[in-house]
Amino acid sequence: MLVQPRIRGFICTTAHPQGCAGQVREQIAHVRAQAPITGPKNVLVIGSSTGYGLATRIAAAFGGGASTLGVCFERAAEDGRTATAGWYNTAAFEQEAASAGLYAQTIVGDAFSRAIKDEVCDRIRRDLGQVDLVIYSLASPRRTDPLTGVTHVSAIKPIGNTFANKTVDVQQGVVKPVSIEPATEDEIAGTIAVMGGEDWALWMNALRSAGVLAPDAVTVAYSYIGPALTRAIYREGTIGRAKDHLEATAHALTADGLRAYVAVNKAVVTQSSSAIPVVPLYISLLFGVMKEKGLHEGCIEQMYRLLAERLYAGGSVPVDEAGRIRLDEREMQADVQAQVAALWDLVDTDNLEQLADLKGYREDFLQLFGFATEGVDYGTEVEPVVPIRSLED
Ligand code: NAD
What we know:
single chain; 393 residues; alpha/beta; Rossmann fold; seven-stranded parallel sheet; two-stranded antiparallel sheet; globular; binds nicotinamide-adenine-dinucleotide
């Protein structure tokens, strides 16, 4: 099958198996080129197939030799459709892990459900005994509450006032005004139910009750703060309320005797961030500035730093005044933000290519689906059906 990108708005409905495998290998190569991590031995990554979760799994496995169990929601290839990128990433990750003699298993299903939590606890008990690091890296538009059966839907909206600003249509290269009405109370509650900390706490309680959590285990969930420019739509909007809840959950889990952290990561192009209005324009300006200053990072650079320089550097874990691990310090540097803010005022369709790193944004977007890997001949037919080793057992 000849696999080409088929982009619909902010998603791509196809993925390239070899391209995805290539970008997984690039992340592995990055980690292998760094100093080894004396870190966790058995790691559970919830949301393991793309973005920050995949990068954490790679850093733990190839930087520290950890056994990893991943949970993700991905689709295999069928009826002439390619698999999802996360499927191909996972297949490649497991293949590389096997070649390196590392344990790697993946459970594909709804992480919000009770059934998947039980399956994960059973698998840990059977194969690993206990886990000493649990990464919570889910990003989802909806969640069915396992107790009530109610499906909650998240919304990316401002709270209180209409948000009016600029945004970019990345594919067309057009800067245009955007106006988003404030969220209703239901939309705020729905977003907190999906992206807040409720499910994280359910996971930690399930793991602890099953006796599969090591006594000194650490758990980390991911958050974002971002600049004044995106504040009304992000941190002070519905998603920000969910992140506040996630951070409060870290405190509640800590009070309950667990070592729970929230790590604040930098803005990067992922399937989730490309769906947030205004953020792609901010990211493409940010990337230009950070690359110029030699500060640019993707998921893998940060997740290596999270393990090597924050969680397992020896000594206490450095946190900010609110108890959060910060990996966004380069993005939030005053000089970086001042430059992005100045460009923001100037940017329009005519000067977009000059002022913003739209090329870099587009390339990262294509690479989410494996369409920008060096050395892959995209004009050659490929077999879309690729098994994930641990699902074949
Ligand atoms: P992503 O879309 O790349 O990854 C989401 C992961 O969740 C995938 O592995 C997917 O399979 C999994 N998933 C989604 N629904 C699931 C379900 N029901 N069951 C099982 N797995 C499911 O997202 P990302 O951008 O890496 O985001 C991960 C976390 O990092 C989020 O909390 C996000 O807010 C945070 N974060 C992202 C950015 C950014 O710029 N992208 C910045 C800072 C923090």
